[in-house]
Predict the structure.
Amino acid sequence: QVCLNSELWHACAGPLVSLPPVGSRVVYFPQGHSEQVAASTNKEIDSLPSYPSLPPQLVCQLHNVTMHADVETDEVYAQMTLQPLSLLEQKDPYLPAELGMPSKQPTNYFCKTLTASDTSTHGGFSVPRRAAEKVFPPLDFAQQPPAQELIAKDLHGNEWKFRHIFRGQPKRHLLTTGWSVFVSAKRLVAGDSVLFIWNDNNQLLLGIRRANRPQTVMPSSVLSSDSMHIGLLAAAAHAAATNSRFTIFYNPRASPSEFVIPLAKYVKAVYHTRVSVGMRFRMLFETEESSVRRYMGTITGISDIDPVHWPNSHWRSVKVGWDESTAGQRQPRVSLWEIEPLTTFPMYPTSFPFRLKRPWPTGLPSLHGIPYEFEQK
Amino acid sequence: QVCLNSELWHACAGPLVSLPPVGSRVVYFPQGHSEQVAASTNKEIDSLPSYPSLPPQLVCQLHNVTMHADVETDEVYAQMTLQPLSLLEQKDPYLPAELGMPSKQPTNYFCKTLTASDTSTHGGFSVPRRAAEKVFPPLDFAQQPPAQELIAKDLHGNEWKFRHIFRGQPKRHLLTTGWSVFVSAKRLVAGDSVLFIWNDNNQLLLGIRRANRPQTVMPSSVLSSDSMHIGLLAAAAHAAATNSRFTIFYNPRASPSEFVIPLAKYVKAVYHTRVSVGMRFRMLFETEESSVRRYMGTITGISDIDPVHWPNSHWRSVKVGWDESTAGQRQPRVSLWEIEPLTTFPMYPTSFPFRLKRPWPTGLPSLHGIPYEFEQK
DNA sequence: TTGTCTCCCAGTGGGAGACAA
DNA sequence: TTGTCTCCCACTGGGAGACAA
């Protein structure tokens, strides 16, 4: 089920999620993929076979990205077709598209977390005043009370009709007829969020974001979670060995971290940024209201998260402590490309030079011709 | 979610499904497992890597079998832990338990396919007269009208209360209060079946069997179907290479055929039964009313279903034609252990001799010391 | 014997303003 | 400004027998 509307997909995915452009080069992390599967199947990984032939990261070309929404839950996910690249291809100069990072959050939208009243069987949905005025078409205030019919398209292209009325004492915007049908069809409960977008084609789009209900995730009865983990590793290993394409699903709201990273972002973070224990950093997080804020922390260590299976991996290689102890939320380990160190020693001008293809003496670390002595192992 | 009630599980699984006993030796077919995943993900297999190290069948010890029911759909499935056996262990004599084939269908039960009236919002469930008299506790006909409260446990152990009443002109058995709650909670529609069992502990059990709605099967957004297929193969190959345990799910109503077969049944069908093109055979199928009937057919060929990936596999090696052309239902290819050839040349007495362990010159084909010239390659 | 219909009326729940946080 | 309550009454749908396949 392909989701046709990119704006709506990105709005549901959240402000921090951006999909690398088709054709660009990315770095794929089997460990991160594995974390997503573990989160989705709600099952820890027991003992898995090692795949010594599979490196902890794979530089790939991203051949295809399609945006989808789960038919049952409307959960957004992306399907990506990746092809591991030869060392030579990894060292090709960047295309312009690989450096720009488009963030496609729509501007004319609002997101509201549903209250108990919004989801109760008595009555409809209370629309925040600014939201209604900004996102919905203007009401005809000559009518008494002012009202109109709204038609909104969900992620699957299905249309939902709502009566939008401005009434009550004091006056407020409400969605009445049609609202409860939507709530029960999507099985929304208080705490879930809905998201209305008014797009450039004067269409109203309607997405949902469910509250985190980690217990709801059901173990698949199709394949054991062990086989799923092995499958992901074997599929990547096979693709790496044969330089053939493989397909992955990225579920931005289930996955603890993105595991397909633009090559440029990875290289900049790993080879062009110096970090050390004790260094202060900032990191972006999504707020409840679907905007972003920065949290501060201190680097407390740099080491392999899994020295046995994945030695010398940069995945979550940075141990951190967070300033605000409200945590438990924020992971104790992050990857270099997720953080902004507060004191950096820029080793190159911030605007990357476009370089001509030429042979390099060795693999990825020399991607930009950085002298070895400046690189971190 | 473990299903506690074995009778109910078997009743829901159907009369043809029998799980091999724990501790027994079984033959596992990756191809059959693959078919189940294909059926569950509703996706054909594209191109998969070959696993030359993985034979088309694996003789395993069945260490554990647990019966489950999907939390969302109540679909029954079994989890099995298998361990590939060494050649020597494969040749051990049979344990008594490996020869008996227990079929655990309960006797005191009924299964009814729901009508439009049964699932409509107006009124309850019409209980077939014989079914009510056989399975439900007797009503007190002194009351007018006779009525009682029934409490039935579903696959998850949840209890459902129903008012059972005998009324109307002409008189009939009905379930009223409580029925519609059950229908909407389980999201039953006309065409689905319900199944009531009165067990030996005087408990009423309640299972459901959904009508085949193959389009409903959603593609998982957790892992690509390719990775799932690779995962199943890689997990089996890894287990075979290291003689370690692996876990599979068997979904009797989703899977086209059983893919974990008792070793004795496999050996008897493959090495002790002679089949040839033109031979007539019978095969068991489940009827709409959850009983069994035999269909007749003729063997039209014997060949590998997939000579590239699985040469010399016995999985669906028999091409057949069916007498009743109502088919499209019945597969054009079956495996030897699924059919009863009508003219057999018994090569051994029907009761298997228990043999002592002793060394054999070669692998599985000599399992029972059958001279080579009698064996089919 | 049992599937569907219609009738009856109790209770659910949409839709309104009141009210208070 | 907006979350919750209560009130009102239309309509849904449980539960009964009628009726026909």
Notes: The first helix of chain B runs from residue 6 to 13. The CA atoms of residues 163 and 171 of chain B lie 16 Å apart. The helical segments of chain B are 6-13, 30-41, 87-90, 116-119, 129-135, 179-185, 225-242, 263-271. Chain B has eight helices and 17 strands.
